[in-house]
Amino acid sequence: MTHVEPGGSGLENRRPMSPHLQIYRPTLTMIMSISHRITGIALYFGTLLLAWLLIAASASPAAYTAAAACVNSIPGKLILFGFTWALFHHLLGGIRHIIWDTGHGFAYPQREWLAQATLIGGIVLTVGVWGIAYLVS
Amino acid sequence: MATGPAPVTHATSKVRFLGSAKSGTADAWNMRVTSLALVPLSIAFIAIVLSLAGKDYAAARAELGHPVVAIIMLLFILSGIFHMKLGMQSIIDDYVHDAHLKEWSLIANLFFSVCIGLACIFAALKLSLT
User: Fold this and answer.
1) Average of per-residue pLDDT across A86-100
2) Which of A24, A33, A102, B79 has the maximum number of C-beta atoms within 10 A of its C-beta?
3) Mutation target among B30, B46, B72 for the A interface, most CBs of A within 10 A
4) What is the pLDDT of residue B6?
5) Cβ atoms of residues A85 and B46 within 8 Å
6) Which residues of B touch A (CB under 8 A)?
7) Domain map (residue ranges) of chain B
8) What percent of chain B has pLDDT over 90?
9) Which CATH number applies to A27-136?
10) How far is B74 from chain A, CA to nearest CA, in Å?
């Protein structure tokens, strides 16, 4: 539906529109932006896991043992590993946004460096935390 | 593309609810403030979960019931729920274009966030108060 201002030339509504993502050649900063949203969505539904574990722990020893057994299974560990990575990736991406909010880090080498640090940092921290978890347990 | 919304300058956009809701600045601000709070809180949350690894029920419960741990968990839950509600809201605003579906999605987002938030807070309080 074309919206035309009464008495106008019809050009008022021809504001620039952003084309869909697949038009652009993928860049690292673009992939980091998309993955920030996707990890955000994953963490949103991941709170179900946190609520389930907290309710189980507060309900009874049997409920906690059953929940812990689910988390300690192979699929449970895979989900928890993914949750850990999503949290670290989103956390580092958030720090990147805080840096941008101060007005820094937009220039060419800095923004690439920040994107690489987010990607690599998220993986390193996830593997590191799981390594510590295996050492202490 | 001619399918965009009517320009906000149009006189009837207020009547049709197509103009600004005038609350965007508060949402953007709250998103940033909660993200700032969540930097130390999510690191503390990961440390707490990490320290639970390999612990039995009694030990896990004793740790989660400790006042300092419980307060950190409650702060993490509160700011996390607020942050994720705002995040999902902007995703819905960006991608759901059907007016009715958008309204229902925003309501579902609010219900989900409040339910999860309240469940986590209640469980965390029960762990430390009973």
Assistant:
1) 97
2) B79
3) B46
4) 52
5) no
6) 1-4, 6-7, 10, 32, 35-36, 38-39, 42-43, 46, 50-51, 53-54, 57, 60-61, 64, 77, 80-81, 84, 87-88, 91, 116, 119-120, 122-124, 126-127, 130
7) 23-129
8) 73
9) 1.20.1300.10
10) 12
**Residue B13: band (very low, low, confident or very high) from pLDDT cuts 50, 70, 90:** low
**Hey, is the C-beta of A133 within 8 angstroms of any chain B C-beta?**
yes
Residue from the list B60, B80, B119 with its beta carbon closest to the beta carbon of A57:
B60
- B102-110: which pairs have CB atoms within 8 A and are 24 or more residues apart? B109/B85, B110/B85
Q: What is the ipTM of this complex?
A: 0.84
Q: In the predicted model, is pLDDT for residue A6 greater than 90?
A: no
Q: Name the helix (H) or strand (E) containing A136.
A: helix A108-136
Instruction: Record the pTM.
Output: 0.85
pLDDT digits (tens, 9 = 90+) for B40-91: 999 999 999 999 888 889 999 999 999 999 999 999 999 999 999 999 999 9
What the block records as the tokens of A137 is 């347990």
Q: What is the pLDDT of residue A17?
A: 74
How many Å apart are CA A107 and CA B105, to the nearest integer? 37
Q: Tell me which amino acid residue B16 is.
A: R
| pLDDT for res B1 | 44
A94, A97, A132 ranked by CB distance to B50: nearest: A132
Would you state the pLDDT for residue A33?
93
State how far Cα B66 lies from the chain centre: 25
Hey, where are the domains in chain A?
27-136
Taking one residue from A and the other from B, the number of pairs with CB-CB distance under 8 angstroms is 98
- Select the CATH number that applies to the domain covering B23-129 from these four: 1.20.58.220, 1.20.1300.10, 3.30.499.10, 3.40.250.10: 1.20.1300.10
Which chain B residue lies closest to A126 (C-alpha atoms)?
Answer: B46
